[in-house]
Design goal:
The complex is a heterodimer. Chain A is mostly beta strands. Chain A is 0% helix and 47% strand. Chain A has no helices and eleven strands. Chain A has a five-stranded mixed beta sheet with strand order 1-11-8-3-4, with no helix packed on it. A four-stranded antiparallel beta sheet of chain A has the order 2-7-6-5, with no helix packed on it. A two-stranded antiparallel ribbon of chain A has the order 9-10. Chain B is globular. Classes of the chains: A mainly beta, B mainly beta.
Chain lengths: 114, 116
């Protein structure tokens, strides 16, 4: 059973704001929500992480409603170089260890056009 | 700060041959992950180490794949014998100790394996 659901792909134009929404209906109380970005021929790169409300860094903003069953990654004024796959992850606890796995879904393929 | 180092970057082998990948994580990172990424798919976690102990290998095909992390630093992933469907990029990642619920990991550039 997938822990997160995201759109398969999105298209945008340079200078626009892009919002990618992720559903995680079964998120556990203590789980964080994390987003990664992956360019072709590179490993994923951590973008942002949050637990509730809003988190902002130099790259993106992450909006998390009170029920935490979804989250939205917001990329302000995208450029061609933001074309990538974006993955939403939530915690996946490893039984009897106290640790979490990093489990990736299929992600959202964002294409930014001129 | 040096990133996660992986080698080789590319490898082409014939089916039924053996292959090994090497990973050097970021200094001080206790958690090390190996992923397999088939073209067009998200990374699939194969094995996760905490120091030199395995905390999860539920998705590792143990009949042909093996991994070790001696002394809790470098790690090697081996495939023996390789099949055509093993063609993929193999990614290594590491993260700090005591991350608990935090999931910020740093990835290497990966090794692209082609099995012919």
């Amino acid at each position: 059973l997938a822990k997160t659901t995201q759109p398969i792909s999105m298209d945008s134009y340079e200078g626009q704001e892009v919002n990618i929404t992720c559903s995680h209906n079964n998120i556990a109380t203590n789980d964080y929500i994390t987003w990664y970005q992956q360019f072709p021929s590179q490993g994923p790169r951590f973008i942002i992480q949050g637990y509730k409300t809003k988190v902002t860094n130099e790259v993106a903003s992450l909006f998390i409603p009170a029920d935490r069953k979804s989250s939205t990654l917001s990329l302000p004024r995208v450029s061609l170089s933001d074309t990538a796959v974006y993955y939403c992850l939530v915690g996946d606890s490893i039984v009897n260890t106290g640790f979490q796995k990093l489990v990736f879904g299929t992600g959202t393929r964002l294409l930014v056009s001129p | 700060e040096a990133g996660v180092a992986q080698s080789p970057r590319y490898k082409i082998i014939e089916k039924r041959q053996s292959v090994a990948f090497w990973c050097n994580p970021i200094s001080g990172h206790a958690t090390l992950y190996w992923y397999q990424q088939i073209l067009g798919q998200g990374p699939k976690l194969l094995i996760q180490f905490q120091n030199n102990g395995v905390v999860d290998d539920s998705q590792l095909p143990k009949d042909r794949f093996s991994a070790e992390r001696l002394k809790g630093v470098d790690s090697t992933l081996k495939i023996q014998p390789a099949k055509l469907e093993d063609s993929a990029v193999y990614l290594c990642a590491s993260s700090l100790p005591g991350t608990g619920r935090s999931t910020e990991a740093f990835f290497g550039q990966g090794t692209r394996l082609t099995v012919v």
